[in-house]
Amino acid sequence: MKNPIRVAITGAAGQIGYALLFRIASGQMFGPEQPVILQLIEVPFEKAMKALEGVAMELEDCAFPLLHGIVQTSDPAVGFKDANWSLLVGAKPRGPGMERADLLKDNGKIFIEQGKIIDAVAADDARVAVVGNPANTNAMIAASQAKRLPAERFTAMVRLDENRARAQLAKKAGVPLTAVTDTFIFGNHSPSMFPAFHIAKINGKPVPQVITDAAWLQGPFCDTVGKRGAAIIAARGLSSAASAANALVDHVHDLMTPGKIHSVAVKSNGEYGFDPNVWAGMPVKTTSPGSFEVIKRMPLDEFAKQKIAATNAELVGEREIIKGML
Ligand code: NAD
Ligand code: LMR
User: Fold this and answer.
1) What is the pLDDT of residues 193-225, one digit of tens each?
2) Confidence grade of residue 127 (pLDDT, cut at 50, 70, 90)
3) Could you give the number of structural domains in the chain?
4) With bands split at pLDDT 50, 70 and 90, how would you rate the model's confidence at 101?
5) Which residue, 60, 68, 70, 88, shows the most beta carbons closer than 10 Å to its own?
6) Is 237 left (phi over 0), alpha (psi -120 to 50) or beta?
7) Contacts of 178 by beta carbon, 8 Å cutoff, 6+ apart
8) Residue 238 sits in the same domain as residue 108
9) Claim to verify: residue 81 and residue 190 sit in the same structural domain
10) Which residues line ligand 2 (CB under 6 A)?
């Protein structure tokens, strides 16, 4: 049996936490041979800590063989101690009528503090995945506080958008999900994101050759994927949770699996015209567990270039808003 890895999860008693922890403990994130110690972090209020206690009891009651320990804490210095992965979920979700960027001022502060503490106490091989919204800019904020850990260790999740795009394309084409590949998300986890349908494939053929309705691809398809989070909030009264947890399992699993090509929001070094030092969704290839390279030179047509310019402008705007906080 391998040595256990330490996985810190903030917001562990929240909606996403409840859909996530059991999947990590059962081996779906790190594989069936990899034991884990879950370091659960919540806010220091009685209600949250009580709820966390209940979740920890349920985790114990599952008798997962891979679960080698549970830490429950409201002290981030304890929760992130020696963590190999830190999953930053804990943050305010938006409500109806809000955009994710409206959360920036409140949630941004959380990521300043957590970026500093992770940098100080997490393991040398620490990796960070940000889910709390607005996820791209929060990852940039956390990374900006790190002196020890390189910026590449901080990623944000656009995998939910990739999964949404695949599902919409499969439904429209009337094919099984497995027939749809190469669905990459460029830019921000917001309605401005670009689900790059011109690169995606159905049974190995470019999507526009299979779904020949260009107006649907450029309009309703991009809108449905970009505004899916709001549609779920309107329907449930709460933001997506199970699908977000599922996407985080995919995000980390694929970052730990060499050879996987998937969408991750990472620090831009100017690829595809993104401003350096925004965290933009791009296709990456996992090179070794936890490490990746951005796949450069995917072809961009005029529509793709316009969409990427718009989502880049939004990311630069978000960076401007929080500049004074860093
Ligand atoms: P929730 O309100 O159900 O749970 C959030 C939990 O985080 C709460 O239990 C809260 O006490 C805790 N928390 C808040 N601040 C914290 C801090 N500083 N440290 C530790 N814990 C803290 O919300 P949720 O539905 O689980 O969503 C969490 C976040 O994820 C929101 O910001 C939401 O918008 C975002 N989200 C992102 C995606 C994505 O694709 N990137 C998808 C869904 C949701
Ligand atoms: C989502 O895309 O479902 C999440 O980011 C939640 C939200 O606010 O839309």
Assistant:
1) 999 999 999 999 999 999 999 999 999 999 999
2) very high
3) 2
4) confident
5) 88
6) left
7) none
8) no
9) no
10) 93-94, 100, 133, 160, 229-230, 232, 239-240, 244
